[in-house]
Amino acid sequence: MTFEELKPGDHLRVIAPSGKIREPLSVETGLDIWRSQGYQISLTSGYDRSWGYFAGTDSDRRRQLLDAIGDDYSRGILCARGGYGATRLLEGLSIADIPPSTNPKFLIGFSDITALLWALSRQENILGIHGPVLTTLAQEPDWAIARLFDYLAGKPLKPLHGDGWGGGKVRGRLFPGNLTVATYLLGTPHQPDLTNAILAFEDVNEEPYRLDRMLTYWRTIGAFEGVLGIALGRFSQSGSPFNSPGDFSVEQVLRDRLFDLNIPIVANLSFGHDGPNAILPVGLQVELDGDRGILTWPTNSPSY
Questions:
Q1: Which residues are catalytic?
Q2: What number of CA atoms fall less than 13 Å from residue 249's CA on the CB side?
Q3: Which of 44, 156, 269, 280 is the most exposed place for a label (fewest CB within 10 A)?
Q4: pLDDT digit string (tens) for 222-252?
């Protein structure tokens, strides 16, 4: 399915499928940036609710999601923030529950939103974009904001450059996301088929030993089998005052757990928390050059 570019006047819906909104001003600032592009924005009923650390009960947040997907008038779904809670919306959710829509739409978010980006990647009328949520958009540098809006307007994505760890060059479908959230999708009905995939991982506030544990789990259950390459973004806030001299760093863990997979790997790409978060479309064909350290999009149009 081909997704037509967005145009000024197109309608977008805001949902809060994860944590409750703790910084309303940052949401408003993000909305102002979207509106400055000429888009019409509507706030889905209940997006500002609070239930514990969630933006409403599971049923409230699931209703937000399904209403936004089924809205034939809307061209896109903007997630207000991450936090925690999107995975809970998938419990008991089947393909039959996803409402049909005659209007294909973009779903934009990252971090905890990984659960929705990956679970809905099989829906032909939804194109996930791993990118800033409303609360983080204003923190992005100008080039990253321009990258988001240029892509939605139909312009080709520029390559991302990082540090190549070798392994040659491959093409495959890109599945970007938060490593922790993605790990907890493994073995569930919502795990996408990762055969011939290129994974793109980032994370925040995870100590090296916890990253080690997650990647070891991927290895132990054979989840890397069929994966063609790995792109690594930012793993921020990983330091701990309890680390002892000689403990492994994040990079040492990543190299130890990934390098012997003998597939192309590119590290230190500009996406993730606490820094530029370059958008990464979900499920589209990309080329990863592990020798030159480049992630590129061989086709320009956002289509499957």
A1: 111, 202, 273
A2: 4
A3: 156
A4: 999 999 999 999 999 887 655 677 789 999 9
pLDDT bucket at 303, cuts 50 / 70 / 90: very low
Backbone region of residue 111 per phi and psi (left: phi > 0; alpha: psi in -120 to 50; beta: other values): left
Residue 22 tokens, joined: 């703790």
User: Which position has the higher pLDDT, 101 or 175?
Assistant: 175
List the one residue out of 28, 121, 5 whose CA is nearest residue 78: 28
pTM, full prediction: 0.95
How many whole angstroms separate alpha carbon 104 and alpha carbon 261?
37
| Number of neighbouring beta carbons within 10 Å of residue 45 | 12
Joined together, the tokens standing for residue 121 give 């990647």
Long-range contacts of 62-66 (CB under 8 A, 24+ apart): 62/89, 62/93, 64/15, 64/16, 64/17, 65/15, 65/17, 65/89, 65/116, 66/97, 66/98, 66/99
